[in-house]
TrEMBL record:
Organism for this UniProt entry: Paractinoplanes ferrugineus
Transmembrane regions: none
Domain Luciferase-like: 18-218
Swiss-Prot/TrEMBL GO biological process terms: alkanesulfonate catabolic process
GO MF annotation terms: alkanesulfonate monooxygenase activity
Family annotation (InterPro entries): Lucif-like_OxRdtase_Rv2161c, Luciferase-like_dom, Luciferase-like_sf, SsuD_RutA_monooxygenase
Keywords: Flavoprotein, FMN, Monooxygenase, Oxidoreductase
Protein name per the record: LLM class F420-dependent oxidoreductase
Length: 276
């Protein structure tokens, strides 16, 4: 099993390139950046992590700018979105950004995707929360066409374009791994429909059982990566036994003096697992 970390790349914390360089030097396999374009000041959607939404949610750099900095600062590290809020993005522009980062990094990008939880945030982008999951799938399928066709065409309910040229194409073929985030009742349907893997949080209900369900339903290989994994060797052992490809733990945003102890705790948990 591989190991990675997640990070909100804020303007007042360790810079994206610097955090990438440091976690690569210390042996991590992947780094995922979170995305929020903004947070509405008048927000009614509750946050699942508690009463107060942390400031890092509205202080992040642009996702693909941060990923480019991380890719340029490293040579081995996989860099990815954890997750890209596709329902808040134009699919033609996003296809270009994904392909660009993958091309510049030499094929090291992993495309974690999601629909998000903040209904006011997505509404500000013109997205109806009631149809966000259908929109997500259609935009992903349109991007796959752009990545693989010299002259792409797509006609759908939400995305519609005739004969476009868009380069570069991704370095990875046919495209970077599409990791479908989320833990709702229909998420496995979405993974099976257009994903290359599932990207749940550790605290998703019945996670280990649902991994087994995904494997039993799949007619092709689908990797499973798990985010929000606690630095606990017993949890890591459970995930390894379930055949999880990679476990990743969130690091706090801030100066290196805050980040390093959390990374060391994660490294100790990995070391305990490997040493067993």
């Amino acid at each position: 099993m591989e190991f990675g970390v997640g990070y909100f790349p804020t303007h007042d914390g360790v810079r994206p390139g610097e955090i990438a360089r440091r976690v690569e030097e210390r042996g991590q396999d992947a780094l995922f950046f979170a995305e929020h374009t903004h947070i509405p000041a008048d927000r009614r959607t509750p946050w699942g992590g508690g009463r107060e939404l942390p400031q890092k949610y509205w202080h992040t750099y642009d996702l693909f700018v941060a990923l480019t900095a991380a890719a340029e600062a490293t040579s081995r590290l996989r860099v990815g979105s954890g997750v890209c809020l596709v329902v808040e993005r134009d699919p033609i522009t996003t296809a270009k950004e994904v392909a660009s980062v993958d091309h510049l990094s030499g094929g090291r990008f992993e495309f974690g995707i999601g629909s998000g939880w903040n209904r006011e945030e997505m509404a500000n982008h013109g997205t109806d929360p009631r149809t966000r999951l259908a929109l997500l799938g259609e935009r992903v399928k349109a991007m796959r066409e752009i990545w693989t066709a010299d002259e792409a065409t797509f006609h759908g309910r939400f995305v519609d374009f005739d004969r476009i040229w868009s380069w570069p194409k991704p370095a990875q073929k046919p495209w970077p791994p599409i990791l479908v985030g989320g833990g709702g009742p229909t998420v496995l349907d979405r993974v099976l429909d257009y994903g290359d893997g599932w990207f749940p949080q550790w605290d998703d209900a019945d996670l280990l059982e649902r991994i087994g369900e995904l494997r039993s339903r799949a007619d092709r290989y689908l990797q499973v990566q798990v985010l929000s994994v606690p630095p606990d060797p017993k949890v890591l052992e459970q995930l390894a036994k379930a055949g999880v490809h990679r476990a990743s733990s969130w690091l706090p945003s801030g100066p290196w003096s805050l980040v390093e102890p959390a990374l060391e705790k994660w490294e100790r948990a990995i070391g305990e697992l490997i040493g067993r």
